[in-house]
Amino acid sequence: MTDGILGKAATMEIPIHGNGEARQLPEDDGLEQDLQQVMVSGPNLNETSIVSGGYGGSGDGLIPTELDPLGSGRHPSHSTTPSGPGDEVARGIAGEKFDIVKKWGINTYKCTKQLLSERFGRGSRTVDLELELQIELLRETKRKYESVLQLGRALTAHLYSLLQTQHALGDAFADLSQKSPELQEEFGYNAETQKLLCKNGETLLGAVNFFVSSINTLVTKTMEDTLMTVKQYEAARLEYDAYRTDLEELSLGPRDAGTRGRLESAQATFQAHRDKYEKLRGDVAIKLKFLEENKIKVMHKQLLLFHNAVSAYFAGNQKQLEQTLQQFNIKLRPPGAEKPSWLEEQ
Questions:
Q1: What is the pTM assigned to this prediction?
Q2: CA-CA-CA-CA dihedral for 269, 271, 275, 278, to nearest 10
Q3: What's the CA gap between 74 and 59, in Å, rounded?
């Protein structure tokens, strides 16, 4: 049975470096980041399942810390201090927490050993080439969309500043129109022009702000949610390979009564990590598919909005600009409404 499982697993392995020599890492801090990822989730000692009866029905394995009255260091007699139900529960909880820490420590050791083995070319890792290519493409896409998001926010800030200037200039022209009879007409139509530009600018700003808000949701929520599942998948892959390597090493060792039990236990643990890895691999593939479909749908709408709004604004087509906002159900803040401004975070 062991050979069957290992044979199937081996079809998914790709040696990191054929000659076993250490290789130069693409980034100096890559190994440190991966080690931090291995250590990031410590044991949860706040949750226990013991409610009564102690750990395994007894207090075995727990070493009392009390000294006898003579200070000899001998364990006190069980007849001196009878233990109540509360003591048994406390021992059970302490024992369970000790087991949690122990299992976490063993798992962390195996994963760290596997990670170092991969990084220095002395081990093999399981690779799904198609899935990893999609993951890398997602990370690259996210970086590019973050750049678009930053530029969109900069455009919003510049447009807001332009609107403030146009509004002030229109007020100045209107004031001078009242105080300069000989230039009243010229100041007057310039004031009206600035007011019209300001109104159209507010409409454009509403469209751009909606565009930025949608990109922000796509990047910081939708893509980030998928990448969180990817991180869980990568951690499961490392655990799977660590326990696969452990099982392979035991399988190559001598077969006797003692090692047979260890081998069966290692095989069961390996199978559990394999199931976890394959489940998360399927989850990642599904999320990547849905993310791509959602991204296309959202960006098709947002790019059309951005194009139509910008084109109508610079063409001076106020009617088309207003129709664009109606088409995408964008409502502007009414005049006199309390700020926050268009610059507030969405």
A1: 0.66
A2: 110
A3: 17
